[in-house]
């Protein structure tokens, strides 16, 4: 009997014994960043940086996004350098798969490869939480932290800012 052995990537860890290098984050940890809603009212959005480009050596980025009840989310866009995935933890999110809007609830998952059109919105009037995964990892923390300030930029500066953050919006 021959057992099939799948092809694994080349080893990146070369030592013969393991090491103490894991990290742990409790669920009740404070968010790393809080974005107030545009109107200044309500709860806004909390971002928890679970695994960043820096902490995973560029493998991926994993972020928990807890959105308040205010409507919000980016318009239709794509990324050239990374894939993006969404896993709904709670509440109801509207996700666009490039073809249609879908109402996603707890346990639903959307994978978007590089170049894939997508968008998401919380339109429910209730809080919603999701995990966002970017692969390979990218410095998305700057994107999350600076997005609320792009209203002060000129159109040309705003367009350049989005390109710098691998976000290409379509009408």
UniProtKB/TrEMBL annotation:
Superkingdom, taxonomy of origin: Bacteria
Residue ranges occupied by any Cupin type-2 domain in the UniProt entry: 66-134
SUPFAM superfamilies in the cross-refs: RmlC-like cupins
TM stretches of this protein: none
Matching PANTHER family: PUTATIVE (AFU_ORTHOLOGUE AFUA_8G07350)-RELATED
Identification of the protein by name: Cupin domain-containing protein
Origin species: Actinomadura gamaensis
Upper lineage: Bacteria, Bacillati, Actinomycetota, Actinomycetes, Streptosporangiales
């Amino acid at each position: 009997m021959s057992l099939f052995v799948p092809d694994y990537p080349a080893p990146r860890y070369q030592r013969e014994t393991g090491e103490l290098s894991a990290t742990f984050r409790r669920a009740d940890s404070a968010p790393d960043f809080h974005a107030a809603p545009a109107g200044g009212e309500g709860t806004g959005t909390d971002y928890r940086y679970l695994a960043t480009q820096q902490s995973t050596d560029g493998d991926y980025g994993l972020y928990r996004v807890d959105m308040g009840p205010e409507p919000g989310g980016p318009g239709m866009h794509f990324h050239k350098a990374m894939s993006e995935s969404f896993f709904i933890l709670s509440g109801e999110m509207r996700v666009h798969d490039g073809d249609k809007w879908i109402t996603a609830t707890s346990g639903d998952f959307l994978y978007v490869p590089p170049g894939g059109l997508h968008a998401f919105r919380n339109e429910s009037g209730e809080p919603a939480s999701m995990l966002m995964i970017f692969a390979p990892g990218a410095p998305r923390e700057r994107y999350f932290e600076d997005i609320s300030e792009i209203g002060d930029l000129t159109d040309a500066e705003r367009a350049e800012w989005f390109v710098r953050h691998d976000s290409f919006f379509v009408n």
